[in-house]
Amino acid sequence: MLLLIVIITSCKKDVKELNENVSAVGQLSLPANQASLKLTPTDASASLLFKWDAASAADGELVLYEIAFDKENGDFSNPFYKVVSDGGGVQTQVRLTHKDLTKIAALGGIASSATGKIKWAVIVSKASNKKVSAEIRILQLERPAGFAELPNELYITGSATEGGEDISKALKLKKLEGGVFEIYTSLKPGTYQLTDKTGADGKKFYIDGAMVKEGITAVTVTGATKVYHLKYDFNVATVLDASEIQSFGLYMSAYGAEIGQLNYVGNGVWQSGVIPVVFYQFSWGRDERYKFAIHTTNGIQYLGSSNVDNGSPVGQGASYFYLNEVTSDQWNNTYKFNPSADNHNVKVTATLSAGGSYTHEVTTL
């Protein structure tokens, strides 16, 4: 027992009480008070640096810094947004992108295409002790047209759409880049909305002229059923295209003309009937080059190969047939028919749906 007491006594260590004392940040350095900034969230390199003087702790240990944002009339008792400083919270600065600041502006009540003011301060903390900086500054932000948080996915739903009013059957738009979506689809008399989810909890969007807006308002469609190319940019809340597709032609380069037409069958798919194909006879040989011409109310859109010059499709992989927006050049960015198509009939299917790459298939009959 005496030995046990000696061992326990010898294992005791002095416990040092944690000193939570810390001073508030005294002065903010950057940006200047009442600084004004026009936000460009689509520019990935655009950012703003926030800097301040260091706080001090009684024992010289590291403290944690957070930059906090509040509305212009706020007192930082409940800031609407906080982020730790660089270096995991130990550095006396933080760099925020314009994309981050656009989100902060929206949370602070600054509407799209509007200018407003918010407050910022630095909160220093050690353990449970937190102090707001002695200085508080105003930052004026100008938001561009667009959404602070871009949808990752986008769907179209409603009685005017091919999927009908069942939101679980909403049609997915193809995401071209961050915030930019498009779809080739038909619309009939009825109404439609855009949403970021195929469920009741999704955000809803509608079209107002050339603008995309958030809300439950439905867009009304009247007249005959028509096929459209719809394209939206949520970065600037803009309708990039809403043109009617009048025809979808198979264009053969050597003839400089369309040798057949494809008909819309639904879900972004066009199919042709029987199209006779005759390669054009030049002195050097027979020419088999082709691409596609979509006639819309906004002009002709050409679809072709990403390669300026192509070889035979025989033995090529699926990517050979991918459809891309190309120029109207008669010869460039074309495909070549399989040699078996010469003096034969073909059927062509073009698929422009969100499920994967736009592509096409030519079958020799």
Structure description:
With 365 residues, the chain is mainly beta. It folds into 3 domains: 115 residues, Immunoglobulin-like, CATH 2.60.40; 70 residues, no CATH class; 120 residues. It is built from 3 helices and 30 strands. Strands 12, 13, 18, 19, 20, 21, 22, 25, 26, 27, 28, 29 and 30 form a 13-stranded antiparallel sheet that branches. Strands 2, 4, 5, 7, 8 and 9 form a 6-stranded mixed sheet that branches. Strands 10, 11, 14, 15, 16 and 17 form a 6-stranded antiparallel sheet that branches. The longest helix has 10 residues. The chain starts with a helix and ends with a strand.
Keywords:
about 375 residues; mainly beta; Immunoglobulin-like; 13-stranded antiparallel β-sheet
Q: By helix and strand content, what is the structural category?
A: mainly beta
Q: Please report the total strand number as a whole number.
A: 30
Strand content: over 45%
Using only C-alpha atoms, the radius of gyration works out to 31 Å
**Any idea how many domains?**
3
Largest sheet: 13 strands, antiparallel
Distance between the termini: 100 Å
Approximate shape: elongated
The low-pLDDT segments are none
Number of helices: 3
**Overall pLDDT, averaged?**
92
Classify the helix fraction into a percent range.
under 10%
